[in-house]
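Illustration: Secreted protein.
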Amino acid sequence: MRRRIAALAVTVATADAMLLGTASTASATGPGFYLRSHHAGLAECQAVGNAGADNALWSRVFICNPFAGKPGVYELWVRY
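Result:
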């Protein structure tokens, strides 16, 4: 039982780390995410995402996805 709980905790921690600003490059964002803005690079997108989360404009969960229309452009998807 303890091993199952430990394995579950590791899985949840890993999933949280992926969502808390490490900017997953998933092709789909899923329900509850809203397109906030477009940025010239991944670092800029992550910086804006972290700044909004730090100022409580949106939650700590955000995703920077590559924009399919233009190479080098990233979309910031946030959860409110």
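Reading the tokens back as a structure: The longest strand covers residues 34-39.
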